[in-house]
Structure formats: C-alpha cells, structure tokens
Amino acid sequence: MKNVLIDFSHYDDFNGFGEIARNYIHTLVTRNINDLHFIFILPRKHRGRFGAGYDYIDREDKRSQLKRLDKHIDLWHATDQQFHLRGGDSHTIQLLTVHDCNFMTEKKGVHKWRHILQLKWRVRRSDHLTTISHFVLDDLNQNGFIMGKPVDVIYNGIANDEDMPQQQPSFITDDKVPFFFSVGQIREKKNLHTLVPMMKYFPHHLLFICGDNHFSYASQLQQLISQQGEGRVMLTGKISNEEKRWLYSHCAAFLFPSRLEGFGIPVLEAMRYHCKVFSSRMTSLPEVCGEHASYWDDFTPEEMAKVVQEGLQSWQKDGREAQLAARHSQQFNYERYTDQYLSLYRKLLG
C-alpha cells in the first residue's frame, strides 16, 4: 500500500482554496480505497475528524510531527502553490497544483520578483503539475514557469448543495425588492467598483456585494458606494453558506466582473441555482462559463447596464437557457475531480 500525503492546510479558509479543500476531502473519505493510505495535513482542531483509517498532521506543528511519522511518504500532493512546507525524501513523488499566477499582474517590483522566484522554486521541486484550467496552463507556459514538467488540467468541482438549507440574510429587509448579487473576496482584481455606477441604470434594483472585506480595497469600494451607490448598494461582509444559497436562489442576476481568475467557482455555483450570470470576458471565465453567461467587454456604466438589460430580457429561472446553464455547471463536480486525482496518484505511483 502506498502512502499519499495531501496538504489540506487551507481547510478552514473562507476562499477558493478552503472551498476546494473541504469538498475534496469530504468526497475522498467516502471512497473505499484499498491500495492507498492517506495522510492529511489539517488544522489541529480537525485531527481525527475523518476516522481512524487516516494519519493526521497538524498544520500548526507539521514539521515536528512529520519527523515522527512512522511511514514513508510515497507521494506528496501540495494542493496549491502557496504551501509552506514540502516534505518527504528523494524517493517521494512531488505533485503540485497551481491555481494561478495572478501575481504577474497584481504585484510590482521586488514583491513580484519574490513571487516569481517562489513559484519557480516550487515547480522545480515538483515532479508533476496540475492546473485548474487551460487558461492557467497557458499563463504558466507564457511566463516560463512549466520548465519541462509534465502537466494535467483538472478542473475544480462545484458542491452539490442545491437541496441544502437556506437562510434569508438579515440585510434583506424586503424580499419583494429585486436585487443583484456578487460574492467573493473584496479585492481590487475582482473589479467590483465597476458595478456601483452601473446601478443608476437600475433604479428598482438593489445590489449586495458579499465576501471577506478586510482588504484595503474594501474601504475604497465603500467610499464609492457612499458617493455613487444611489443608496441601493450594500457591502455586507462575509455570509454563511445558507445565506449564499438563499441569495443565489432569489437574485435577479449574478454579477462577476473579475479581471483575474484561475477558475471562477462562483459563476458555476450561480448556474446551479438557475441564476443569469454576467461575467467579464477575462482570464479563465470564458473557458469556464462557455456560452452560458453574458459577457462584459466594456466596463463603462452604460455599456455594462446595456449587457445586463439585454441578458435579462429573455431569461427565466425555469426556462431552457437556465436549465442548460445548470446542466453545464453540473459537469464540474467533486466526484469527477476526486476520480481524476485518484487516477493521477495511481499513475504517478506506477
């Protein structure tokens, strides 16, 4: 039996890394796997959570616990490029999943070079790479990060949670008022400020922008909302999964003008709930959404509003377009994701 270590350090994080970690491990442990033994790096509070059939390494004390591990690690899967430890020995196969190289656009000067050197070092230390989209693979190639390593593209999954409980958020005081919805980290790359002046063209709608707002960009966005939000735009902060599901189910449309995405989980989540999706045409989003979204090519308020107005004219939540979008989203699931990684583990282990 081969020993496979999977780094789930981001299990508790409220971002894409955390979403993937939670769904992957919860799917993986439902499988009856007899040829592989798994070792999980997890936050300490989850030690033993998935039963005695696995070994656990506490994220907070991983170095010393790995030294005491009584098993050889045959394959080490770093599930994102931001890992803080690469272990094993010269006989350990190193697998690295790269989600993006957004820092090539986001960072400047010494900070950009630090990220470049870190990713090159991490790729050099790896035997095999996976990326979460063909866009990311192309981006890595164009920026010289592949360095001859073999690569597989394995798309992220989307949780099947449409039948899970929903909860109306407390900031929804009148559920009869139509609203637009956006969710994600409130960071500059999400381009959310473009939505605020657009709202003057929708005097009967509200806009709720939800997500982790501890970034400096959130303060700038809040200032813009105060100045141009028409009193109908709200930056809510983090929401629960129950609230997110309610918002997907009840919104008039899902708005996602992001400029930098390695994948784009929210657009596919929205499709599961028969939401009309409006997206930028940048980075991975056209690859992920296909023909099932309406795209912004111009971020001036009047042109963005025009795209939304035209896209909503024929959209019905129980209509054919919505059903096709939901079916498209269902192709991205954690059953397939887990199957592909198990197949890759076995292939690499021979």
Describe this structure in words.
The protein is globular and about 65 Å long. It is of the alpha/beta class and 350 residues long. The longest helix is centred in the N-terminal third of the chain and has 16 residues, at 109-124. Helices cover 37% and strands 17% of the residues. The strands form two sheets. Strands 3-2-1-4-5-6-7 form a seven-stranded parallel sheet, with helices on both faces. A six-stranded parallel sheet has the order 10-9-8-11-12-13, with helices on both faces.
**Overall pLDDT:** 96
Cα gyration radius (Å)? 21 Å
Shape: globular
Q: How many distinct beta strands?
A: 13
Outline the low-pLDDT stretches.
Answer: none
> What profile does the largest beta sheet have?
7 strands, parallel
Portion in beta strands: 15-25%
| Major sheet: arrangement of strands | 3-2-1-4-5-6-7
Look at the helices and sheets and give the structural class: alpha/beta
Q: Please write the string of helix (H) and strand (E) elements.
A: EHEEHEEHHEHEEHEHEHEHEHEHHH
Helix fraction, binned, reads 25-40%
**Cα-to-Cα separation, first versus last residue:** 12 Å
Q: How many H/I helices?
A: 13
Give the helices and strands, then pairings.
Blueprint: E1 2-7, H1 16-28, E2 36-42, E3 55-58, H2 62-68, E4 75-78, E5 93-98, H3 103-106, H4 109-124, E6 128-131, H5 134-142, E7 151-153, E8 179-183, H6 195-198, E9 206-210, H7 216-228, E10 233-237, H8 241-250, E11 253-256, H9 265-272, E12 277-280, H10 285-289, E13 294-296, H11 301-313, H12 320-330, H13 334-349
Parallel strand pairs: 1-2, 1-4, 2-3, 4-5, 5-6, 6-7, 8-9, 8-11, 9-10, 11-12, 12-13
Helix pairs in contact: 1-13, 9-12
